[in-house]
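Sample intake — GNAT family N-acetyltransferase
Collected from: Streptomyces microflavus
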Amino acid sequence: MTAVPPPYTTRRAIEESDLAACFQVRKEVFVGEQNVPEEIEYDAYDPTAVHVLAVAADGSALGTGRLLHGADAAGKTGGDLTVGSLGRLAVTRQARGLGVGAALVRAIEDEAVLLGLAAVDLHAQTHALGFYERLGYVVYGPEFPDAGIPHRAMRRTIKPV
């Protein structure tokens, strides 16, 4: 019996073409679908973040996410430099329901481990809390707006300190 290849793979986005694909997915999902102003979707953290990309067998981009670390993440993690900040997780409409989002979260966590981080924080849109809870994230703190959308902070320990 031969193994069936997955309908997509995830990888760290390093090439310019991969980064362009990440930004295109974000534009489609956040700017196009959720009406986030384009001028706040892309920020000063993009150049130093670790970006991950999910691609279909034909090479088309299905989803993306990024990991902030070090000083870039400190403002989102309470100043703890052992915690990374997962953000900008987006899956194209046609790829939803295929497990792409969960695969991207795990790929970001793998990158966090490689960086020596102990935990990953994120700011989840409230409608997505259940998704992240199923992946082991725990809510903390009050609800807050980000780009006019309600969010909650969440954290998952990925490596014992």
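Post-analysis note: The chain has one domain: 8-157.
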